[in-house]
Design goal:
The chain is an all-alpha fold. The chain is built from 18 helices and no strands. 66% of the residues lie in helices and 0% in strands. Helix 8 packs parallel to helix 15 and helix 12 runs parallel beside helix 14. The N and C termini lie far apart (45 Å). The N terminus and C terminus are likely disordered.
Length: 329
């Protein structure tokens, strides 16, 4: 995980700022929990937390377990995500996007969360565990069914309009700049979310609406990243993957992974980028697009180059038809 450990950007500083508390007050609570868990006494001078935030050192594993107990986060999550990544799951908005079940209801909640106030953190909010989990759950999640909300029934003309508007939005980035398009993508996302929540529709229409939500989230992710808002971008990318799963749309899912990979290898995690691209390439037989497959291989080359693996970067790509095995008849 790539983290800017400057005081104003560290996850612990961010978490305490969100809560309006001080290092010293928080450490006092951690020390009390540390004692209750049978770990003994722990100093709670504010300089201790300052050293954690500066990256000078990290809390012991027992101290992290005490902190996690206060946040109602299980020890296995601390071990899986590592310091300081697990702290992000203590933020309710992050939990809704990163750790909630991959259900249609949770996808709608994630879309609401990602479309809220802009997240101006400068550090990545995903860990290698998060990336792996996102890819695995995207592949396995059940798509959406029909919705009977009691609201006005809509037909295929509604997703038609959203898809047309999103197509136009894709061409405006160079003309208007990423900041303007980011705002527009978030507006589109709110409109699509309103249709998802307040309308009645068939299974096919619902999946197209989720597909449009995934594309709006992908567009918001890319333009947020291009505007220097990397945490906001990741929230949109994870949300786009959730919506792509609900839509049962491998194209928008693979395209999202390709754009997310750019952010990963550009911010110090080329191995994570390679994993994302490999997951996208695994969908090549379903997608059936030589153009997208070629684009994914180009991204893979860049990721390997960023990782310093020139041999892998120069290696000819595996033909897409060999990525999955056809059962013998």
């Amino acid at each position: 995980m790539t983290v800017d450990t400057s005081a104003e950007q560290h996850p612990l500083a961010y978490l305490l700022s969100r809560r309006g508390t001080t290092h010293e007050a928080y450490l006092f609570r951690v020390a009390e929990q540390h004692r209750r868990m049978g770990y003994g006494q722990m100093g709670h001078r504010k300089e201790k937390a300052s050293r954690w935030v500066s990256g000078e050192n990290a809390p012991t594993l027992r101290t992290q377990f005490a902190m996690a107990a206060l946040e109602k986060i299980p020890p296995e999550t601390v071990l899986a995500h590592g310091w300081p990544g697990w702290l992000l799951l203590a933020v309710p908005d992050d939990h809704a996007i990163l750790a909630a079940p991959w259900t249609t209801t949770a996808t709608v909640h994630a879309l609401e969360t990602a479309g809220g106030p802009v997240d101006r953190r400068k550090f990545l909010i995903t860990t290698s565990v998060t990336l792996t989990s996102t890819v695995a759950q995207w592949s396995a999640a059940a798509p959406a069914g029909a919705a009977f909300t009691g609201g006005r029934r809509i037909d295929g003309s509604t997703p038609d309009r959203f898809e047309h508007r999103l197509e136009e939005l894709r061409h405006l980035d160079d003309e208007l700049g990423s900041g303007e398009v980011y705002d527009a993508a978030r507006t589109e996302l709110r409109l699509i979310l309103s249709a998802l929540k307040d309308s009645t529709y068939s299974e096919r229409v619902g999946r197209r609406l989720f597909g449009a939500a995934a594309e709006a989230s992908r567009s918001a992710g890319w333009t947020a990243y291009d505007s220097g808002q990397i945490a906001a971008a990741e929230r949109h990318y994870v949300t786009a993957m959730r919506a792509a799963a609900s839509a049962d749309d491998p194209v928008v899912g693979a395209n999202t992974l390709a754009f997310w990979a750019i952010q990963q290898y550009s911010t110090g995690n080329p191995r994570g980028a390679i994993d994302l691209i490999d997951a996208a390439l695994a969908q090549a037989p379903r997608i059936g697009s030589a153009r997208m497959t070629a684009m994914l291989h180009a991204r893979a080359c860049r990721a390997h180059a960023h990782a310093g693996d020139t041999r892998a970067a120069d290696r000819p790509p595996t033909p897409p038809w060999t990525l999955t095995r056809t059962p013998a008849r």
